[in-house]
């Protein structure tokens, strides 16, 4: 679970920090930075799982140059800069699924034991990236991974797993030191690489915590569902849906084969939001692709003809299913497809998905009717002051009679 994210020099964030719990509701007006925060999560995940910093921008909103904080500079002035920098820093509790996956890797390698195991499940990762506008070159200026105490402070009893270190002790040369956890000679990497160290192939028995952090961020899903992607169906053998919802038919097909009770539960949840839905069907077409049909009042309706809102809701419910394999799910305005009278049902479903599980949900909303359904501790207020986004917790002083007015003011403050 992500407990803290600090974003410096990225898009509308000059320097802002988000504190997050199991369910986090981002509230604010248009252009206040809510979607930018989700973009930052997607970029961080991509940088530790993709082979290069440039590859991390493949599905990014905007070019690499546009990702750096502009302040009061024009884009032409940005291009004239010698260098631009940004940094992302995340405090993350490793999920049970991640720890189990790394434990399996260690068993497969025959290297179980205290020297090769996850002994620290609360980690801080920081990466600082520089862009040279003239060449378009991206490089890593700083990268570090260290264990945290429960109060969020670094553990003094354990050296960082990855950190910059002076090689000669005189400060003339600094490299990134990736510490081998089971002992052995040190691994040093040059600063200025075009990829993060965590994105490299790492041997789990030697670097269990680095592998675990990367595995955790692989489980982050930042969704922007598109009905057109869901309507396309999925190739035979597909087992999961993408962030856009493509491949949803493959995920439902797997549920039907391996976890039929979960498919039944998912159908019931969809019916609680869209009452005329009777069931779900997935069949193979003449080309061998899996196609989704939604049974509406006893009649199977192809996903090509189904309501866009119904398809997005189905994709949302699938995303928060315990069989989707996600540890963090971020959702853009999930209330858009729901009738106002059923917003409490959706809020309850999202809360239920985070209870007694490792799943964390972040969502943004422009709806007062939806935002007011969540408790004060879950709400984070976004505000754009000049060129910079600010993030604040909801002030409990507004609880009671003035609560709705305070939330509405936050949504319409521009």
Layout of helices and strands:
Layout: E1 2-10, E2 13-19, E3 23-27, H1 34-49, H2 64-67, H3 75-80, E4 84-93, H4 96-108, E5 122-132, E6 137-147, E7 162-166, E8 174-178, E9 187-190, H5 208-218, E10 220-223, H6 227-231, E11 234-235, H7 248-258, H8 260-273, E12 277-284, E13 289-296, E14 299-302, H9 308-319, E15 328-332, H10 343-354, E16 360-365, H11 368-371, E17 379-385, E18 388-393, H12 403-411
Parallel strand pairs: 3-16, 3-17, 10-15, 15-16
Antiparallel strand pairs: 1-2, 1-4, 4-5, 5-6, 7-8, 8-9, 11-13, 12-13, 13-14, 17-18
Quick structural overview:
The chain is an alpha+beta fold. The protein contains twelve helices and 18 strands.
List keywords for this structure.
six-stranded mixed beta sheet; about 425 residues; alpha+beta; 12 helices; 2 domains
The share of residues in helices is 25-40%
Share of residues in strands: 25-35%
Over all CA atoms, what is the radius of gyration? 23 Å
- The total of beta strands comes to 18
The number of distinct structural domains comes to 2
The helix/strand series, from N terminus to C terminus, equals EEEHHHEHEEEEEHEHEHHEEEHEHEHEEH
- How many DSSP H or I helices? 12
Q: Note the overall shape.
A: globular
Category from helices, strands and their pairing = alpha+beta
Give the uncertain stretches in residue-range form. none
- Characterize the largest beta sheet: strand count, sense, and whether it forms a barrel: 6 strands, mixed
Mean of pLDDT: 91
Strand order of the biggest β-sheet: 10-15-16-3-17-18
How far do the termini sit from each other? Answer: 32 Å
């Amino acid at each position: 679970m992500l407990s803290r994210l600090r974003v410096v020099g990225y898009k509308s964030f000059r320097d802002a920090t988000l504190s997050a719990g199991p369910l986090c509701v981002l509230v604010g007006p248009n252009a206040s930075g809510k979607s930018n925060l989700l973009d930052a999560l997607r970029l961080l995940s991509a940088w530790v799982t993709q082979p290069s910093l440039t590859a991390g921008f493949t599905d990014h909103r905007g070019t690499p140059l546009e990702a750096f904080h502009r302040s009061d500079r024009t884009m032409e002035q940005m291009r004239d800069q010698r260098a631009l920098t940004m940094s992302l820093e995340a405090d993350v509790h490793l999920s049970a699924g991640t720890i189990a996956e790394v434990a399996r890797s260690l068993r497969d390698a025959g290297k179980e034991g205290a020297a090769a195991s996850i002994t620290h499940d609360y980690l801080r990762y920081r990466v600082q990236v520089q862009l040279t506008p003239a060449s378009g070159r991206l490089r890593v200026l700083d990268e570090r991974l260290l264990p945290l105490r429960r109060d969020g402070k670094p553990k003094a009893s354990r050296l960082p797993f990855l950190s910059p270190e002076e090689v000669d002790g005189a400060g003339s040369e600094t490299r990134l030191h990736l510490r081998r956890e089971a002992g052995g000679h040190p691994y040093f990497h040059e600063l200025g690489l075009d990829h993060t160290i965590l994105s490299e192939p790492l041997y789990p028995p030697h670097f269990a915590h680095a592998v675990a952090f990367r595995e955790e961020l692989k489980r982050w899903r930042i969704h922007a569902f598109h009905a057109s992607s869901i309507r396309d169906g999925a190739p035979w053998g597909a087992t999961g849906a993408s962030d856009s919802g493509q491949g949803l038919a493959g995920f439902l097909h797997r549920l039907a084969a391996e976890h039929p009770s979960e498919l039944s539960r998912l159908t019931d949840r969809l019916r609680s939001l869209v009452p005329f839905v009777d069931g779900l069907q997935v069949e193979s077409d003449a080309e061998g692709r899996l196609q989704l049909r939604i049974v509406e009042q006893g009649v199977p309706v192809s996903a090509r003809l189904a309501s866009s809102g119904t398809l997005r809701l189905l994709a949302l419910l699938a995303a928060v299913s315990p069989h989707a394999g996600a540890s963090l799910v971020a959702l853009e305005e999930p209330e858009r497809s729901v009738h106002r009278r059923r917003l409490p049902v959706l809020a309850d479903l999202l809360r239920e998905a985070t209870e007694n599980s490792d799943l964390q949900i972040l969502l943004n909303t422009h709806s007062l009717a939806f935002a007011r359904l969540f408790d004060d501790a879950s709400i984070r207020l976004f505000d754009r002051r000049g060129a910079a986004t600010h993030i604040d917790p909801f002030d409990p002083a507004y609880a009671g009679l003035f609560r709705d007015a305070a939330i509405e003011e936050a949504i319409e403050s521009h």
